[in-house]
Structure formats: structure tokens, C-alpha cells
Design brief:
The chain has 372 residues and is mostly beta strands. It is built from 5 helices and 25 strands.
């Protein structure tokens, strides 16, 4: 099996079993329903139709077949959420390089968002601390720092206006013709592959009270802006035409914290849940990923990428899931050698980044995604 193929035989993960048990739900599945699933899974394993990701899962399935009491179910859940991961595959992609990037600054950088940009660049949206007595953050300074990944040198720094009301968000594209945009208050700043900005006024982003713009990306086909508007526990995903008129795409029962895009596909991530919008088929899919990350500490931030072969990788901390684009199957899982803040992709280059606030530098690691 190559890393770009789904496994030859479907793999049963510990997250799949936790998905049956749903320990966090008020209304849990019945013991008989759980036992039926476990029996079917065991039969499939014995017939060679399914493989187990970890050998201890066989004992778990055998215990579930026997209609365990609630107390034993709780013990099984604890074992599934345990920290032993000796048999989980390690990150399979070939390392291509690693470098540390000192971030240019006038004041300490308190946070940043970094991602690989089509065309060989790395974009970092950073915020510098304002005055010590600034409680509202109005004197914080936002900057878009553009790096060349080959030379690991700063190509340009665009300083954004201070004191702007509204969101400041990065919107990634997937083509060199429209690689990146930044929403800053009521302005949309588009960047070309060389990092040159083009500023446009879009009053929509100022927002009304109670409405929050939580994520953005660029449409993979038209390069129009896609935004997530969050209001009353519902996210409205809108396509913003070039004339500023918003066109509704979908409604999502939750909050979307960031987007990823690939050819014909938009991926939205919330708190361990995911939505995909297949633009060619006009279909959407939803999936809760809580069970698949339940064996790892909560990181409050996750990222996703659309792979060249159409699969979706979802990363949180050390753990990475590989899902089919329709979200029907969590194909496999990987563990990286260390926790990372974000995962992005440019062509066949995977880019992992982590920001170190105390020293204000960025660690960038690149890996090669195999060409199909």
C-alpha cells in the first residue's frame, strides 16, 4: 500500500469502536446494538475482510459481544481512550527539510497563523502586542509576512491598519492565480503569488452585533471569497461575489473555525467535527470526529488539507486522520513524532508549522506527498 492509496483492506480503528459506544451522549446506544456491531466486526476480521489497527481491539470486541454491564462498558471506554499507541502507524511521509524562521517584529508577537501558499511561499498572519494598558487590543498590530520556502527568507511584510473593528482572518486558495486573501475589518486584501496586495472595501465584514465571521477561504474554481458567519449556534457559509453580494451556500449546525480547499472541494472544521462541500456534485457531508481524537489531549485547534488524490487529512496536535472526501470512511490514522500547530499543503509538499511565542520564531517542516 502506498500512502496515497486507501488501505487494501478496511481498517477498524479504536475511534470506530468509540463511535459505537458514544460515551458522551445522554442517550447511549443499547447494549444489544453494540453487541451486534461487535459480532459483525469480529466475523469480518476472521474472514479477512477487515483488519484491526491495534491488536488489543480484538479483546475489546470479544468483551462487547458478551453484552457487558454498564460498569464494564465504562472500563472499555477508558481503555479505548488510553495513551498506549505503540501500534498506531507513524507519520509516513518523507521529510524534505526543516528550518526555523525568525519573525520580523517591533513588539513581541503574541499569536500567528501560518500556511503554505500555492507558488512556493509561506504566509504568516501575525499580531504584535500593543501597549500594556490596551485592554481591548486596539493598538495591536497585524502583519502579513511572506516567506520564500526555498530560501527561507522574508520576501515582504504588509502592515495592516491598527484599530480596525471586525475580524482579521486568512483566506487560503488552492491556485497560484489566487493563492491568498486576508479579511481585515471591512477590507478584503487579495495577494498574488509574489505577495503583492490588492485592497478592496467590503462593508459586509463589519458585521452586526451577535454575528461573527469565523473562517474564510477562496473558492477553488472562481477565487470568490467564501466566509462562515456564526449566529445563534448556526453557521451560514456564504459565497461573496466580486461585487460584494453574498450568496448562501449551506447552513451548518455549529461553528466552523477554519477552511481548507482543494479542486472542487471545500472543507470546514469545527471543534473536532468536519463538513465537506463537493462543488462538482453539489453534495455536502458531515461527520463528528470526537471519537477519533478522544485518546489524545484536546488541542482547541485543528487543521485540514485536501490531498492531491482527493482524500482529506485532519490534524490535531500529533494525530492525523485520513478520511475519504465524502467522509464516509476514516481510512487510517497516523502519529507524528511531535505535536504541531498546523498542517497545510502546496502541490505535493506537506507543510507543518509551530509558533514559539517566547522566542518569536516559527518552526517549518516540509514533507513529500507521493505523486500518484
Amino acid at each position: 500500500m502506498t500512502t496515497t492509496d486507501r488501505p487494501d483492506t478496511p481498517v477498524l480503528l479504536r475511534g470506530d469502536v468509540l463511535n459505537w459506544l458514544r460515551p458522551e451522549c445522554v442517550l447511549r446506544p443499547t447494549t444489544s446494538a453494540i453487541s451486534r456491531r461487535a459480532r459483525v466486526a469480529l466475523q469480518a476480521v476472521d474472514l479477512g475482510r477487515v483488519t484491526l489497527s491495534e491488536s488489543f481491539l480484538r479483546n475489546v470486541l470479544e468483551r462487547l459481544v458478551e453484552h457487558p454491564a454498564p460498569s464494564e462498558l465504562d472500563q472499555i471506554v477508558m481503555s479505548l481512550k488510553g495513551t498506549g499507541h505503540q501500534e498506531v502507524p507513524s507519520w509516513p511521509y518523507t521529510n524534505a527539510g526543516e528550518f526555523l524562521v525568525p519573525l520580523p517584529q517591533e513588539r513581541p508577537i503574541v499569536s500567528c497563523t501560518a500556511a503554505g501558499v500555492p507558488g512556493g511561499a509561506l504566509a504568516v498572519l501575525a499580531v504584535e502586542a500593543g501597549a500594556e494598558d490596551d485592554e481591548d487590543g486596539e493598538s495591536h498590530q497585524w502583519k502579513l509576512i511572506w516567506f520564500d520556502r526555498t530560501s527561507a527568507m522574508v520576501e515582504s511584510v504588509v502592515t495592516l491598519e491598527r484599530g480596525v473593528k471586525g475580524p482579521t482572518l486568512m483566506a487560503l486558495g488552492c491556485e497560484e492565480e489566487a493563492p491568498l486573501a486576508v479579511i481585515h475589518g471591512d477590507r478584503l486584501i487579495r495577494f498574488d503569488a509574489a505577495g503583492r496586495p490588492d485592497v478592496r472595501e467590503v462593508p459586509l465584514f463589519g458585521g452586526d452585533s451577535g454575528i461573527e465571521v469565523t473562517a474564510a477561504c477562496l473558492h477553488p474554481d472562481t477565487a470568490e471569497l467564501i466566509i462562515a458567519l456564526y449566529e445563534d449556534d448556526i453557521t451560514h457559509v456564504l459565497r461573496v461575489r466580486d461585487d460584494g453580494v453574498p450568496v448562501p451556500l449551506i447552513r451548518y449546525p455549529g461553528q466552523i473555525n477554519n477552511f481548507a480547499v482543494g479542486p472542487g472541494l471545500i472543507v470546514g472544521l469545527g471543534l473536532r467535527d468536519i463538513i465537506t462541500v463537493n462543488l462538482e456534485a453539489g453534495q455536502t457531508a458531515l461527520r463528528d470526529l470526537h471519537p477519533y481524537f478522544a485518546d489524545h489531549p484536546f488541542q482547541a485547534r485543528s487543521t485540514a488539507i485536501v490531498c492531491p488524490d482527493g482524500a482529506v487529512l485532519v490534524q490535531e496536535g500529533r494525530k492525523v486522520l485520513r478520511l475519504s472526501s465524502d467522509l464516509r470512511l476514516v481510512e487510517t490514522e497516523f502519529l507524528m513524532d511531535r505535536s504541531e500547530e498546523s498542517l497545510s499543503i502546496d502541490d505535493f509538499t506537506l507543510i507543518r508549522t509551530t509558533f514559539f511565542a517566547g522566542s518569536s520564531y516559527l518552526r517549518v517542516t516540509t514533507d513529500e506527498y507521493p505523486v500518484p
